[in-house]
Write a structure and sequence with these properties.
alpha/beta; Spore Coat Polysaccharide Biosynthesis Protein SpsA, Chain A; Rossmann fold; 2 domains; eight-stranded mixed sheet; elongated
């Protein structure tokens, strides 16, 4: 009999955390699952731990992927998955006991949704993890499909190993692609670009353990430049459909970093008509507009390249006071 859910769990040298992750899957309230364990060239005791589970519990299936990289390993698991629904899991994290059942029930009851996530608890390994903690707080605040759709260009509003999706979505649009970009961010941007609806259940589904070896700390694919390059590609797709003055945009943020990131749109044919600044004193070779002098919403589409959340909120409040509507007349992209 086919399982209700297939869990894809790639691992590489995860001996210190893998058992905890597998026990959390073994203790799920939904019993009908298969957990596909993909050994990605481990050199520690990880494979022995995975073999122990696959030998004693037939729901755990051990395989391997020789091409190095979590995307290759995950794609191998996806090809082997037999269930209608696929859940992702990382070897250093822990699923809550009702995670699979809650997400399975959501997708069964909401046929118009292609994927579902949930709330995440962040567990730091060091006091230097403040940035990750703030990111998780933000992720947990972006809850509905509407918000996920609009906020996706700020950062990825979904923690990848907290997700479950329909296998048909993966078959139709593909899963992780390989390149100099964060593979998970690219996949979710691509799915949203194709109209895949994504939601979150209002319950804790994952304990997300930080570590010094996390790819988002070390991999070139997860550099800030890589994020902004792939973001710009899909932002172009969005603007082509939504920008009322396409291909022109105004950039809120005239500093060096904001200009550098916004200029990644230019190869796609986007024309930056001006930069918006909160100071009268900014002088550039490009046109700079004082923020109180912005045009009516029918004549301008604004991309907000402001990184600090508190400042973004102040910009949003001002734009709304001018009757700008998020998505229709402006978008937060940083």
């Amino acid at each position: 009999m086919k399982p209700l859910v297939s869990i894809i769990l790639p691992f590489y040298n995860a001996a210190t955390t893998l058992r905890r992750a597998l026990v959390s899957i073994q203790n799920q309230s939904l019993n009908s699952f298969e957990c596909i364990l993909i050994d990605n060239n481990s050199t520690d005791n990880s494979r022995s731990i995975a073999l122990e589970f696959s030998t004693t519990d037939s729901r755990f299936i051990l395989t391997e992927e020789r091409k190095q990289g979590v995307a290759y390993a995950s794609n191998k698991g996806s090809l082997l998955a037999r269930a209608e629904f696929i859940a992702r899991m990382d070897a250093d994290d822990e699923s809550t006991p009702n995670r699979l059942l809650t997400q399975y029930n959501f997708l069964k009851e909401h046929s118009d949704y292609g994927a579902v996530s949930g709330l995440v608890e962040f567990i730091a390994y060091t006091n230097n993890s403040r940035g990750f903690a703030q990111y998780v707080d933000w992720v947990n605040s972006v809850f509905t499909y509407h918000d996920i759709y609009l906020k996706r260009f700020i950062e990825l509003p979904i923690v990848n190993p907290s997700t479950m999706w329909r296998k048909t979505i993966a078959q139709k649009y593909g899963i992780y692609r390989h390149g100099l970009f964060p593979e998970d961010y690219e996949m979710w941007l691509r799915w949203l670009d194709h109209g895949v609806k994504i939601a979150k259940v209002n319950t804790l589904v994952l304990r997300w353990y930080d570590s010094e070896n996390r790819l988002t700390r070390k991999g070139d694919n997860y550099s800030i430049e890589a994020f902004y390059k792939i973001k710009s590609k899909f932002l172009y797709h969005y603007l082509k459909e939504k920008d009322v003055v396409f291909p022109k945009v105004a950039i809120w943020g005239a500093g060096k970093i904001a200009r550098k990131r916004a200029q990644l749109l230019i190869p796609f044919g986007i024309k930056i008509c001006c930069y918006i600044d909160i100071s009268h004193k900014r002088h550039l070779k490009e046109q700079v507009i004082y923020y109180r002098d912005i045009l009516p919403k029918e004549e301008m589409y604004i991309l907000v390249y402001v990184k600090q959340q508190e400042m973004r909120e102040q910009v949003e409040a001002f734009l709304k006071s001018r009757d700008y509507v998020e998505g229709e007349n402006y978008l937060l992209v940083s």
